[in-house]
Structure formats: structure tokens, C-alpha cells
């Protein structure tokens, strides 16, 4: 609960300061290039409405360099980033040519390193692919059930000390296929 409260407080503070900065800009007290459109963009239809402009100018461009770092390696448990700088308040970036190596990856589903092309995960994936093939690379409801699925569920149930357990793939498969089946209305024919 504390994390949720602090997150909302952070957004509230950013929003308050954003409105304060807009007020100061409207009265020509603050001059900031972050809110100015470039000359070559002025003849085009605006891409954003009022809230999108507010968010883009006051929140997103301030953290854009942090959120959109270009990677130049396999996104494993660690990865390499391209260093870049900005001279116009993060509207555009210029690459320095320097690579920041071995940064911890906290921004993808690959935080355990399963997508790397070398190492124990890659070796185990190659071995399992030889044994089972790649045909069942989708949800169990769509493409079928393997003995490995049932073995995993029995292991999870034994670990939790319950009669049975269900396991699901992570991400989209869980959200789109399984949650509606568990929470939706029963369909009758």
C-alpha cells in the first residue's frame, strides 16, 4: 500500500509542478525550450491534445532519456546500452559512441536471462526443443498439453501442499486466455 501511495503522490507532485510551470510560462516568467515546438513543426496539425501536451512537456520529456534507453546487446540479466546526450531538453538525442556495459536489466520479462543465446538457459532450451519440438509454443488451450505441463503442476501442488495447481504462461497468455475463463460467466449451449 505504501508503494501505491508514494507513486500517486509522485504523480500528484509532478502534476502540481507542471501546472505551476505552465502558469509561469503563460505569464512569460519562465522560458523553457522543453515546451516550445520546433520551427519546422509549427505548420503541422498538433499530434496531441491538452492533456497529452501537458504530460509530454512536463513529465515524459524530463524522463525520456531514462525510459527509452537504446540497447545494443541481448537483453539478458544484464545488457549494454548506447550512451547519448541531449542539447534540447530531451527532444532529440545525439549518440556519443560510448557503450555502457553490464547494466542490470529490470525492464523486461527477461530479467532471469532466458532469452540469451549462450549459457545454461540456452543449452536447456536447445535440449528441450530437440525433444519436444517447437510446435507447442502457444497457450495450452490453443495448441495442446504436454507431459511437462502436468509434471510442473504436480510439482507446484506438492510444493504448496495442496491437492492440485494450475500453471500459466506469463504475460499476454495469462491475461487474455486464462483470467476470462476463471472470472467470466459460464456459457451454456
TrEMBL record:
Pfam families linked to this entry: Aminotran_1_2
Coiled-coil intervals, chain numbering: none
GO biological process, one term: sphingosine biosynthetic process
GO cellular component: membrane; serine palmitoyltransferase complex
Transmembrane spans: 6-24
N-terminal signal peptide: none
InterPro entries tied to this protein: Aminotransferase_I/II_large (IPR004839), AON_synthase_class-II (IPR050087), PyrdxlP-dep_Trfase (IPR015424), PyrdxlP-dep_Trfase_major (IPR015421), PyrdxlP-dep_Trfase_small (IPR015422)
Reported cofactor(s): pyridoxal 5'-phosphate
SUPFAM superfamilies (UniProt xref): PLP-dependent transferases
GO MF: pyridoxal phosphate binding; serine C-palmitoyltransferase activity
Keywords assigned by UniProt, alphabetized: Acyltransferase, Membrane, Transferase, Transmembrane, Transmembrane helix
Keyword Transferase carried by entry: yes
Aminotransferase class I/classII large domain span: 102-183
PANTHER family: CLASS II AMINOTRANSFERASE/8-AMINO-7-OXONONANOATE SYNTHASE, SERINE PALMITOYLTRANSFERASE 2
Protein family membership: Belongs to the class-II pyridoxal-phosphate-dependent aminotransferase family.
Protein name stated in the entry: Aminotransferase class I/classII large domain-containing protein
Organism: Mugilogobius chulae (yellowstripe goby)
Amino acid at each position: 500500500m505504501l508503494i501505491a501511495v508514494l507513486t500517486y503522490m509522485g504523480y500528484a507532485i509532478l502534476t502540481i509542478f507542471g501546472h505551476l510551470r505552465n502558469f509561469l510560462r503563460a505569464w512569460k516568467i519562465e522560458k523553457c525550450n522543453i515546451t516550445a515546438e520546433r520551427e519546422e513543426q509549427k505548420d503541422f496539425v498538433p499530434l496531441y491534445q491538452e492533456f497529452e501536451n501537458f504530460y509530454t512537456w512536463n513529465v515524459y520529456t524530463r524522463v525520456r532519456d531514462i525510459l527509452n534507453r537504446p540497447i545494443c546487446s541481448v537483453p539478458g540479466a544484464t545488457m549494454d546500452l548506447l550512451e547519448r546526450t541531449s542539447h534540447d531538453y530531451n527532444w532529440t538525442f545525439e549518440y556519443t559512441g560510448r557503450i555502457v556495459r553490464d547494466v542490470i536489466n529490470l525492464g523486461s520479462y527477461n530479467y532471469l536471462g532466458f532469452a540469451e543465446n549462450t549459457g545454461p538457459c540456452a543449452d536447456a532450451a536447445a535440449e528441450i526443443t530437440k525433444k519436444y519440438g517447437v510446435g507447442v509454443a502457444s497457450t495450452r488451450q490453443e495448441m495442446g498439453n504436454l507431459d511437462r505441463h502436468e509434471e510442473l503442476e504436480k510439482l507446484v501442488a506438492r510444493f504448496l501442499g495442496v491437492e492440485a495447481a494450475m500453471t500459466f504462461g506469463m504475460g499476454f497468455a495469462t491475461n487474455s486466455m486464462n483470467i476470462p475463463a476463471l472470472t467470466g460467466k459460464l456459457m451454456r449451449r
